[in-house]
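Structure in, sequence out. Go:
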């Protein structure tokens, strides 16, 4: 009898042990699969907060993460996971650099009429787009023109209409009252595009001073002579504006006296900070020209307009950073002039994660 009782107690203990282990395992499974994609309760939405002078207000739910990017517990493809994280990292970097007091003079600017003139408005879909020339802005303006209803498709827009702001149905933010500006800055989806700052300057130089479209004669006949008179070392040379002259002008700490004479034409080469005030305005997305093939669809999805319009086809290789071209253009420029140029554009390099050029380190 004693042996039987002993076996019964052992059996009972074993049963309790099995039940206990089952409970522990169940709790572990619940905790493990409660958040399968690793999103914590503190996960921030797409629109992060930068150092801003614009009043913070509640952002409508439809302008937060698009549904496809919400953590659903389903297995995401690598691209769907990577894209939101890439853009969150860009905004986080921007926020951190904006807080760097050592770079304050290079990262902060007043939200002036000059900035508001650069921002185009699509009220119908609550979108603001800040124009940063030489990064594919013409195509983005076409997208907004269609969304505003001036034309039914991008293919129908005449090229001479795109930049005619009296006919393209694309208002600037500066055309609204102060209260209406503030409301749009707080509530609308806001984005702009950047590219490597030095490559953008090369693109601006080639487009405006080398190719010089016939409908923009002032670049060659008014602006170029002004730069040459001030910055060309050998005054006996009669050739047109050279890249070396252009670099000296841009890197001159006293460049502003010429900028005033050139007016709004300087938008093709001034800093992103001066154009879009990224530390004062809380942008929703910052696209990069080098990754535009991925960024363009993401921006359309994040703005909730991907079912209405598509970004025009991007020619193969056109957005790839051309390191060889950049090095070639700067090969004949003195280190002193390059350093002065970098000193002016350092804010753009740091805010948007571009590396300091190798030829500055040698």
């Amino acid at each position: 009898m004693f042996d039987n009782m002993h076996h019964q107690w052992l059996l009972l203990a074993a049963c309790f042990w099995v039940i206990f282990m089952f409970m522990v395992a169940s709790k572990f499974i619940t905790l493990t699969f409660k958040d399968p994609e690793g999103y914590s309760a503190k996960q921030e939405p797409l629109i992060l907060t930068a150092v801003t002078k614009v009043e913070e207000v509640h952002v409508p739910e439809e302008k937060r993460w698009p549904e496809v990017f919400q953590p659903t517990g389903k297995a995401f493809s690598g691209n769907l996971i990577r894209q939101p994280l890439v853009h969150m990292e860009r905004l986080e970097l921007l926020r951190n650099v904006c807080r760097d007091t050592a770079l304050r003079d290079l990262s902060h600017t007043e939200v002036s009429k000059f900035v508001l003139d650069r921002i185009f408005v699509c009220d119908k879909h609550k979108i603001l787009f800040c124009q940063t020339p030489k990064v594919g802005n013409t195509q983005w303006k076409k997208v907004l023109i269609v969304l505003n209803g001036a034309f039914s498709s991008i293919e129908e827009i005449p090229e001479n209409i795109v930049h005619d702001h009296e006919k393209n149905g694309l208002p600037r933010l500066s055309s609204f009252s102060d209260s209406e500006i503030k409301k749009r800055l707080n509530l609308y989806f806001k984005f702009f595009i950047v590219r490597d700052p030095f490559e953008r300057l090369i693109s601006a130089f080639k487009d405006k001073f080398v190719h010089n479209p016939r409908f923009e004669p002032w670049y060659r006949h008014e602006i170029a002579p002004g730069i040459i008179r001030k910055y060309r070392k050998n005054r006996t040379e009669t050739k047109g504006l050279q890249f070396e002259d252009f670099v000296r002008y841009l890197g001159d700490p006293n460049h502003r006296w010429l900028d005033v004479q050139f007016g709004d034409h300087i938008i093709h080469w001034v800093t992103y900070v001066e154009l879009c005030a990224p530390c004062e305005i809380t942008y929703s997305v910052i696209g990069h020209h080098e990754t535009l093939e991925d960024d363009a669809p993401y921006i359309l999805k994040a703005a909730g307009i991907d079912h209405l319009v598509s970004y025009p086809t991007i020619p193969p290789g056109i957005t790839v950073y051309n390191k060889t071209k950049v090095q070639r253009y700067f090969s004949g420029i003195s280190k002193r002039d390059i350093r002065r140029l970098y000193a002016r554009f350092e804010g753009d390099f740091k805010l948007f994660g571009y590396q300091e050029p190798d030829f500055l380190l040698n």
